[in-house]
Amino acid sequence: MTTFVSFVGVDIASASFMACIGTTPWKVRVKPVQFENAEDGFVSFLGWLQEHHLKAASTVVCMEATGVYSEGLAYFLHASGYTVAVEPPLNIQRKFPVNASKTDELDCQYIAEYACRYQDKLSLWKPRADILEQVKVLLTTRQYFSVQLTGHKNALHAILRKKVSSELAKQAHQTMIEQIAKAIKDIDREIRRLIDSDPTFKQTLLLLLSVPGIGLQLAAHLLLLMQETLDPRVRAAFIGICPIRHESGSSVFSAPTSRHYGPANLAKIALPGGLFGAYS
Q1: 11 has pLDDT over 70
Q2: DSSP labels, the chain
Q3: Which residue among 28, 107, 194, 269 has its CA within the 20 to 30 Å range from the CA of 241?
């Protein structure tokens, strides 16, 4: 395991991010500075790191998982040779006083201190293959469309049961249902095409599809998850199919259930009988 000397905490937002530098034993070495969350800001940030003589081999840049807000900076730093850690916000929040003040300046210091104290447990980030990033975007888009499709079907069903209705409303919903259904089929074909274009991903997909009950959607989600961890227990817990006991003494007892850590839509795919199925 790499032993880091410098710890950079980054509190990132849509338009800007705040960063500070700490060292071990923990102390703030460089006070927080704000940068633009854009390409020019990334270049300035890299220059700032180099100005303070932070070598890539002994420095870790830690930030919270904020979706697309942190993605650009993570890619830029990784390409520049720096180690990047992306941590769930709750992990960091639980390590500091609940009554502490909350500002961008303090948040980036908390993040840097967290990285220093827990460097052996950091989730080191690396970019996914471009194919898997495209698959992830398509799966997210498919989920949005599926929700819309259900909404239009329910609305059309309600209109058809009305005594006084509107043909225009019926036709509008029917048209949207047909268009969305076609878009979902196109997305499924593109997901399969992308995965099949890589021999390794294709082989893994075929193995997953050979398991009874696993279709393209769940297989694609699992393929993405396998890039994060290969531990089957972690994967099972994440997708919501791992019943965990909750017992304490003689008075606290509940039926085994999932901890509900993973995304709900993935659990629905994994357990068609309902959210978390028989374990809820």
Answers
A1: yes
A2: -PPPSEEEEEEE-SSEEEEEEEETTTEEEEEEEEEESSHHHHHHHHHHHHHTT--GGGEEEEEE--THHHHHHHHHHHHTT-EEEEE-HHHHHTTS-TTS---HHHHHHHHHHHHHHTGGG--B--PPPHHHHHHHHHHHHHHHHHHHHHHHHHHHHHHHT-SS--HHHHHHHHHHHHHHHHHHHHHHHHHHHHHHTSHHHHHHHHHHHTSTT--HHHHHHHHHHTTT---HHHHHHHTT---EEEEETTTEEEEEE----S-HHHHHHH-TTSTTGGG-
A3: 194
